[in-house]
Predict the structure.
Amino acid sequence: MTLDKFDLAILAALQKDGRASLADIGAAVGLSSTPCWNRIKRMEAAGVIRGYTIDVDPEALGYQDTVIVHVTLESHSEETLYEFGRALAEIPEVLEALLVSGDYDYYIRIAVRDTRDYERLLREKLYRIPGIRHSKSSFVLRRLKQARLPLA
């Protein structure tokens, strides 16, 4: 799908405020509500807009710490990679899992309440996943930047 300047402006407006009214989005991008709505629907159908979410502060829910876990698997077969990804998807504390190149196979970002909670998660969930050869954990001390793709 080819995006023009209006589509990009609509995406930027929705990133800024996903609850903005069609009238507000239209005014921001220079279109009336109907063409704005049609463009949004077209981008949703094409998968450009994947969904609408809220941004919840993990600390407000008691998750004070973030851990980055570097994992190496025993095998790199399609079945092993699939099963590992499926198992991670079932762990709610896993915020993000990336298959990467380099010394490790995965980088996993996990939200935990504290170090004891992380130790529990390792024992009860992560280390029960078959096929892990090695892992290394790093606690995030401070987030320096969190961004979304700039659109406008």
